[in-house]
């Protein structure tokens, strides 16, 4: 009688286990996340042999890629779900398992190495962003996570891997980063133009007034704006007015000379106005070649010179 009762209980237990297994398989297969059931027991044995020699596992695996590859080769894939086939663009499980070296290639090898170090150091899980390739050759950004089964801490004979496709998120982040960079660049260009405005005097003459210190960075920004406007407006004369510049150093002087040379290459000339005695002395004592510069004491006389030169050329 007791035997019949025990047999009945055993059958009920088997039925419960079968139902539980069926529920698990249903959840596993229908999950929208890529899931892998794997056996890592041979990996643990390999790492245990390495650790038994007293090596620093991280340093050792960094310099011995062959051990990383050896661990990768002994991972046994027990099962994958439908989401995995979709992520990897594989028609069936058999074809996916035959092409694991395509999916997990050199792009994800460093992730696997760091994963080995973490698990070999006692962690029971590890996650990291990495890149895999589909069977059709498309790269996918994923969040990779491996967890050692709760009843397999000593053997690693059952590990669960999940791959979450974050490709769209990464693309959105990259688009946002580029947008921010473009915005910052546009702001820089606007500030450059505001710090060195170009004022048209006529169809042939523009004026760029400077106020404040002329350092190398500002001169480079001003030169870029100046050349753009000379080419866009097709002027014959660009007047650089430094009336509002308290002093000018060697870098600023060199910038003015370079501006004159660059503008001349575009078929126009530079007239430098607003020079005071101290600045004139600095220009001369600096030993620069000032042949490219036409100078006038005031902006008014500079404009008059440019207009007279324009009339002379037209005649």
How would you sum up this structure in a few lines?
It comes from Nannocystis bainbridge. With 315 residues, this protein is α/β, with parallel strands linked by helices. It contains 13 helices and ten strands.
Beta-strand percent range: 15-25%
Domains counted in the coordinates: how many? 2
CATH level 4 superfamily of the largest domain: PAS domain
Structural class: alpha/beta
Report the total helices: 13
Radius of gyration: 37 Å
First-last Cα distance: 129 Å
Uncertain runs with pLDDT below 50, 5 residues or more?
A: none
Task: Find the CATH topology of the largest domain.
Answer: Beta-Lactamase
Top-tier CATH class of the largest domain: Alpha Beta
- The secondary-structure element order is HEHHHEHHHHEEEHEEHEHEHEH
**Share of helix, binned:** 55-70%
Let me know the average pLDDT.
Answer: 84
Please provide the count of β strands: 10
Largest sheet: 5 strands, antiparallel
Question: Could you walk me through the main structural features you see in this protein, from its secondary elements to its overall organization?
Answer:
With 315 residues, this protein is α/β, with parallel strands linked by helices. It has two domains: 29-170, Beta-Lactamase; 184-314, 2-Layer Sandwich (Transcription Regulator spoIIAA). It has 13 helices and ten strands. It has helices at 2-30, 41-52, 57-63, 65-73, 82-88, 93-98, 100-103, 106-120, 167-195, 216-233, 250-265, 277-285, 299-314; strands at residues 34-39, 76-80, 125-133, 139-148, 159-165, 199-200, 205-211, 237-244, 269-273, 293-296. The strands form two sheets. A five-stranded antiparallel β-sheet has the order 2-1-5-4-3, sandwiched between helices. A hairpin with a 4-residue loop joins strand 6 and strand 7 (205-211). Helix 9 crosses helix 10.
């Amino acid at each position: 009688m007791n035997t019949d009762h025990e047999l009945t209980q055993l059958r009920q237990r088997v039925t419960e286990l079968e139902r539980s297994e069926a529920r698990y398989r249903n959840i596993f297969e229908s999950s929208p996340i890529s899931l892998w059931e794997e056996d890592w027991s041979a990996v643990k044995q390999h790492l245990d042999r390495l650790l038994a020699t007293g090596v620093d596992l991280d340093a050792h695996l960094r310099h011995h890629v062959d051990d990383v590859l050896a661990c990768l080769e002994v991972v046994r894939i027990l099962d994958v779900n439908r989401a995995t086939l979709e992520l990897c663009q594989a028609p069936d499980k058999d074809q996916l398992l035959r092409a694991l070296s395509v999916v997990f290639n050199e792009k994800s090898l460093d992730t696997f190495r760091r994963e080995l170090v973490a698990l070999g150091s006692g962690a029971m899980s590890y996650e990291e962003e990495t890149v895999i390739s589909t069977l059709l050759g498309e790269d996918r950004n994923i969040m990779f996570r491996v967890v050692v089964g709760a009843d397999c801490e000593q053997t690693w004979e059952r590990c669960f891997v999940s791959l979450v496709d974050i490709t769209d998120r990464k693309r959105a982040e990259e688009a946002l980063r580029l947008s921010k960079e473009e915005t910052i660049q546009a702001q820089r260009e606007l500030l450059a133009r505001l710090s060195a405005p170009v004022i048209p005097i006529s169809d042939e003459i523009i004026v760029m007034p400077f106020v404040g210190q002329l350092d190398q960075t500002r001169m480079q920004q001003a030169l870029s704006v100046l050349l753009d406007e000379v080419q866009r407006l097709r002027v014959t004369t660009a007047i650089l007015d430094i009336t509002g510049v308290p002093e000018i150093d060697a870098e600023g002087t060199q910038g003015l000379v370079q501006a004159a040379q660059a503008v001349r290459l575009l078929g126009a000339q530079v007239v430098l106005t607003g020079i005071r005695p101290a600045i004139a002395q600095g220009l001369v004592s600096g030993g620069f070649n000032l042949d490219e510069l036409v100078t006038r004491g005031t902006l008014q006389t500079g404009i008059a010179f440019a207009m007279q030169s324009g009339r002379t050329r037209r005649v």
